[in-house]
Amino acid sequence: VEFSVKVRLFGSSILLNDKEAETGTSFQLNQSDVKVLELPGGGGFGAARERTTNLHKMDIEDGLLSPLIDINT
Q1: 3-state class of 20 per DSSP?
Q2: Is the model's pTM score more than 0.90?
Q3: Which of the two ends of the chain, N or C, has the fewest CB atoms closer than 10 A to its terminal CB?
């Protein structure tokens, strides 16, 4: 048995034998079938306030975080 991790930022998909399966449908799995669930998520590791300013800037540039906005201005 082999497991691997693929990072996915947005959306999700279900693959059955390398073909996209329609979500919400039922299908029977045979012994040789390979089902792959690609799901977004992951909350990161550790407290966000402990990350460096540079890492926060990189997350904003990559679209993973929104910049803070001062609502008092």
Answers
A1: strand
A2: no
A3: N
